[in-house]
Amino acid sequence: MSALAKLLEAALFAASRPLTAQELATLEPGAGEAAVRAALDELQRRYAGEDHGVELVQIAQGWQFLTRREYAETIERAQFALRTRRLSPAALETLAIVAYRQPVGRLEVEEIRGVDSGAVLDKLLERGLVEIVSRGEGLGRPLLYGTTPQFLEILGLRDLDELPRLDELSVALRPPAPAEPE
Amino acid sequence: MSALAKLLEAALFAASRPLTAQELATLEPGAGEAAVRAALDELQRRYAGEDHGVELVQIAQGWQFLTRREYAETIERAQFALRTRRLSPAALETLAIVAYRQPVGRLEVEEIRGVDSGAVLDKLLERGLVEIVSRGEGLGRPLLYGTTPQFLEILGLRDLDELPRLDELSVALRPPAPAEPE
Amino acid sequence: MTTPPVAVQDGAGFVVELEQFSGPLDLLLHLIHEDELDITDLPVAKIADQFLAVINELGLNQAADYLEMAARLLRIKAQLLLPRRAEDDEWEDPRAELVRRLLEYQQIRELVDWLARAAARRAEQFGRGFAPEPTAPPAELVIDLNDLLAAAERVIALIPEPVLHRVVPRPLDVEGATAKIEALLAQREELAWRDVVGERAETVEVLSVFIALLELARRGALRLRQPEPFSPIVIRRERPREAA
Fold first, then answer.
1. Rg of chain A over CA atoms, in angstroms?
2. b/e per residue, C208-226, with b = 16+ CB within 10 A?
3. Strand order in the sheet with B104-105
4. What is the mean pLDDT of chain B?
5. Is the ipTM of this complex over 0.85?
6. Are A62 and A18 a contacting pair, CB within 8 Å?
7. C-beta atoms of B173 and C146 within 8 A
8. In this complex, which of A6, A54, A126 lies closest to B53 when CB atoms are compared?
9. B166 located within any domain
């Protein structure tokens, strides 16, 4: 393995979150981003295939070592790993709206969900899944929410573009246009 | 790599502490401890030598993956393992109330914010941003909170007098007026 | 979420049952799917009755969001019953807004399913479970002064006047009120309620005076009269007293 790949291996191993190529490039200032990308490819290939219990995956606009799926149940049963907390349906609903409408205010979220959503938004903020990205216009200059890199992380997404496009969903957003008079 | 070695690799990677051979043996109840030890040896040899950035070491009567010493300094300098933390809006709100009303009790904070604030206050205590400065009069002699020197330190303030006066606030926070046409 | 509602054995199931649906739209959508109804041509009368029945059954009729939806459904139902002329081009389907919201919400639900699947898949893999350098300083905490001041402003906005409620227990002062009434009656034969309690009396004062009046009336020291309902009470000395 190249010296750079080994350094990246150590850094990725030590980190408990995905690291971006830019972040990794700061480890070896002389190397440049192209070399870092090449080393990441080398590392990923090295761990790919069936020969390791962990693999290097691209996630949340970065790279992270994760255990291979087939060991999930065994490791979880042994309780050696920190259990991921599950999101409630209310939290997922709110996240979905924030993901697609960001930046979005609390009122708009509540209008779509039909229920008070302040507490859910607070919890998502505290868990670092959404953040305040700006303030809106109008009365009281409402806080506007957006998703964080950690949101991508818990969903295993590389970036927001991996979310399904709205027109790919089976439901069309707009109600059918009223029939034209003939 | 043997199937057992790969499973151990995954488990050791995901664990937040060294795992003993006995613990690791619970992962594959059929295997027996001798097989586990053999697999650990295999894994250790595999990561040994110069060809990896991490190594499997025996530590605290157990086994743990650690980054190789030569990368310690570089990684520590980059501090990837730690993200700078930001305070949630709820925490900031609570901190603002404590800063301006100190000494102040939990009930008063909650009355102003309109929501339960016990958990937020606890977190601020834990982070050393507020502390208990005295006890109030009245029922149950409630704890009264104030800000700490660390609070000033983080904000880069010499003392509390440097906080803007409340009546200056809305002016200070208004976005700069658009340049007047001359 | 959209698991079918479980029959409630008694009233105790309120909180649990509430979590079955993430809101009134979720419940509505559940009913629509259960009966395989066409959202865009919603039979509002039917769905309104079902909605009411379910929220009664589940005890959701105490939750404001559900009540609001129930009221909305009933209003639409009523509007649909109004006769309209065939040539009326201006007629707007009263269901339109609700249908739009339901479709929008249904889309969110689809996204939720997608997100839940993605999260479940991600949960099959574990990352490194620890912060590796125990000697490293704790993560630097960042507070922006502007953020803090913005928070202060938010808080200030919450309280138009920074007046805090303080509940100060104050005992009734019936004795004092009695003395005051007796003193006033010594000077004048007839008093109005306002003469005794003043313009801006506090609750404890009103109660004290009221109890004192009743007590004095019972003792026969005065007579209370209210000429007609809600008119001011007239307080009249019962026995003329000797001047002091």
1. 21
2. bbbebbeebeeeebbeeee
3. B104-105, B143-147, B130-135
4. 81
5. no
6. yes
7. yes
8. A6
9. yes
CA dist., res. A136 & res. A101, Å (int): 13
| Among C135, C145, C161, C165, the residue to mutate for chain B (most B Cβ within 10 A) | C145
Single-letter amino acid code for the residue at C232: P
Sequence letter at residue B50: E
Predicted TM-score (pTM) of the model is 0.57
Number of folded domains in chain A? 2
Counting as contact any 3 or more CB pairs under 8 A, the partners of A are B, C
Q: Write the CA distances from A141 to A114, A120, C149, integer angstroms.
A: 22, 20, 15
Return the pLDDT at A32.
87
C20 versus B151: which is more confidently predicted?
B151
Domain of B132, in residue numbers: 89-173
Residues B79, B59: Cα–Cα separation, whole Å: 23
What stretches in chain A show pLDDT beneath 70? 50, 82-84, 139-140, 170-182
Report the distance separating Cα B108 and Cα C228, nearest Å: 46
- Same structural domain, B17 and B37: yes
Q: What is the pLDDT of residue A39?
A: 96
Residue in chain C closest to A150 (alpha carbons) equals C119
Residue A21 within any structural domain of the chain:
yes
Q: Which residues of A touch B15 (CB under 8 A)?
A: 80-81
Residues of C numbered 58-87 whose beta carbons fall under 8 angstroms of chain A's beta carbons: which are they?
Answer: 65, 69
Q: Where are the alpha helices (DSSP H) in chain C?
A: 14-18, 24-34, 44-58, 64-81, 96-122, 145-158, 174-187, 193-197, 203-219
Asked if residue B160 is part of any domain, the answer here is yes
Q: How far apart are CA C216 and CA C224, in angstroms?
A: 10
Closest CA to C115 of A155, A165, A98: A155
In-domain check, residue A178: no
Q: Which amino acid is at C116?
A: A
Q: How many residues does chain A have?
A: 182
How far out from the chain centre does Cα C235 lie? Answer: 40
The region, left, alpha or beta by phi > 0 then psi within -120 to 50, assigned to residue B174 is: beta
Calculate mean pLDDT across residues B2-16.
Answer: 91
C15 pLDDT higher than 60: no
